[in-house]
Design goal:
By secondary structure, the chain is mainly α. The chain has two domains: 15-192 and 262-468, MFS general substrate transporter like domains (Growth Hormone, Chain: A, Up-down Bundle), CATH 1.20.1250; 207-261. It has helices spanning 15-49, 53-81, 83-103, 107-135, 139-170, 175-178, 180-190, 207-230, 235-257, 271-301, 306-312, 314-328, 336-353, 367-390, 397-420, 434-462. Helix 5 runs antiparallel to helix 11 (306-312).
Length: 491
């Protein structure tokens, strides 16, 4: 059965709506923070465990890779078994894994626990937008909830380095994981007021597709790591990429022939939906991936403290919150593709401005570029969330959200790995050349700017008919049992 959500009078939310929004935003903040806060803590982790650059990259990519690899299966499970139920299970897994991360005694256990964290995060991400879609069926109220959701994504990622710096410098790097435990428990207690929902036509599991997807993503990420360590011409690098190519080919073949694929290839026949995924991948593989190395520059080259490094991002934090809130009121009034394209152009411009990095430079010289990129991200996030929901049916909300999360998290994982291939094998944290690191960082920033511009071009060419809001009646005209207005993933 599906719990129906009553609609509140215009301008007001019901208790179920308020709690659902709070729970979803809390979960999203935790998930994004666990990417961002780790960046500031990486030098401290490296010092305690004597870890090299490759091991440190896995602290980030073990989490994002696990999330990207299983989020589609998690979405199908949620549509079938209940989105609230799967959300609760994900919260339990994530909270327990956070405790293990905090207690880890070596890099192996820390990275293994990060993978488990990513699995729990996949369950949470796969259900978050679907829970919002069910709780906020009306157009205006959904726009408001998506603005809050988008601000949470951008703001959490932006404030993460500062929060990570404070916890690392004043307490210990382990505190960045330990703080998830009480937050996770409070979130679990609040889920009793979240309405349950399921798909009326749930999909079955696609295990062949799941296995080939995991192999393809893991091999591709590892290939970039090998290229950074051993070079592009090393036989191990070649064979790792070969395995990735074969696994990716098998994944596409499986998805074409299996009765109920985890990633129905037909959804990409809708140009707006396909373009949205390219744009999502672009912002993740550029802006969100490159800041791993920017943070290492601030601490490893300029010698800033964890808090000092986090403060560099603080102006962008405020800008991103404000812009995301203002953007929510524009959804449905300005064409979605304008805002998506403009947001990515701003991200690219900001990354280009940040190429002022120098060995004897100032961290604050990077702040204007970060602010400009934050403006772009503040526009991008709420609009993209709206497009994902508007271009899918209510029954497909879990699938659509899962696909978008795959491209978001895969973008971060592959972006971190690919950009890392331009950096010297010896980390600046372990006595590597600061000059070589700075040169590589500026190269990575230019690459990130090019990726963001490519995403902007893709959005401009494919998303001209994209909607970021459903053509729904006002809340006062909508019956309490109304479902989300139907649209299709096909054109």
């Amino acid at each position: 059965m599906m719990d129906h959500v009553a609609t509140a009078p215009p301008g007001r939310f019901t208790r179920t709506q308020r709690v659902t929004l709070a729970v979803v935003c809390t979960a999203t903040a935790m998930l994004m923070l666990d990417i961002a806060v780790v960046n500031t803590a990486l030098p401290a982790i490296a010092r305690e465990f004597g870890a090299g650059m490759s091991a440190l990259k896995w602290v980030v990519d073990g989490y994002t890779l696990a999330l990207a690899a299983v989020v589609l299966t998690a979405g199908a499970w949620a549509d079938r078994s209940g989105r609230r139920l799967v959300f609760v299970i994900g919260a339990v897994v994530f909270t327990v894994a956070s405790g293990v991360c905090a207690a880890a005694g070596d890099m192996t256990l820390l990275n293994a626990a990060r993978v488990v964290q990513g699995l729990g995060a996949a369950l949470l991400f796969a259900t978050s937008l679907a829970l919002l879609a069910h709780a906020f069926p009306g157009r205006a109220e959904r726009a408001t909830s998506l603005a809050a959701y988008g601000a949470t994504i951008g703001g959490a990622f932006a404030i993460g380095p500062l929060l990570g710096g404070i916890l690392t410098q004043w307490l210990d790097w382990r505190a960045i994981f330990l703080i998830n435990v009480p937050v996770g428990l409070a979130m679990l207690a609040a889920t009793r007021w979240v309405a349950e929902s399921r798909s009326t036509a749930p999909r079955r599991g696609d295990w062949a597709g799941q296995v080939t997807a995991i192999i393809a993503l893991a091999a591709l990420t590892y290939g970039f790591f090998e290229a950074a360590e051993k070079g592009w011409t090393d036989p191990r690098t070649f064979w790792t990429f070969a395995v990735a190519a074969v696994a990716l080919g098998l994944f596409v073949l499986v998805e074409r022939v299996v009765e109920q694929p985890m990633l129905p290839l037909g959804v990409f026949a809708n140009p707006s939906f396909a373009g949205a995924q390219v744009a999502t991948f672009a912002i993740s593989a550029s802006m969100f991936a490159v800041f791993v190395y920017v943070t290492l520059y601030l601490q490893g080259v300029l010698g800033l403290s964890p808090i000092g490094a986090g403060l560099i991002y603080l102006p962008g934090t405020a800008v991103m919150f404000v812009v995301a809130g203002l953007t929510g009121s524009l959804i449905g009034r300005i064409p979605a593709w304008w805002m998506i394209t403009g947001g990515l152009v701003a991200v690219a411009a900001g990354l280009a401005v940040m190429t002022v990095a120098a060995v004897g430079g100032s961290g604050w010289a990077m702040a204007p570029g970060f602010i400009l990129s934050s403006v772009g991200a503040g526009v991008f996030n709420p609009v993209m969330s709206g497009v994902v929901l508007a271009e899918s049916r209510d029954d497909d909300a879990g699938l659509a959200a899962g696909i978008n999360d795959v491209f978001r998290q895969a973008g971060i994982a592959l972006g971190v790995a690919a950009l890392g291939a331009v950096f010297p094998a010896r980390s600046v944290l372990a006595g590597g050349s600061p000059t070589e690191f700075v040169d590589a960082l500026n190269t990575a920033l230019w690459i990130g700017a090019a990726v963001a511009l490519a995403g902007a071009l893709a959005a401009a060419l494919t998303m001209r008919k994209a909607r970021a809001a459903d053509p729904a009646p006002a809340e006062s005209e909508q019956p309490a049992h109304a479902a989300v207005p139907a649209s299709t993933l096909a054109p």
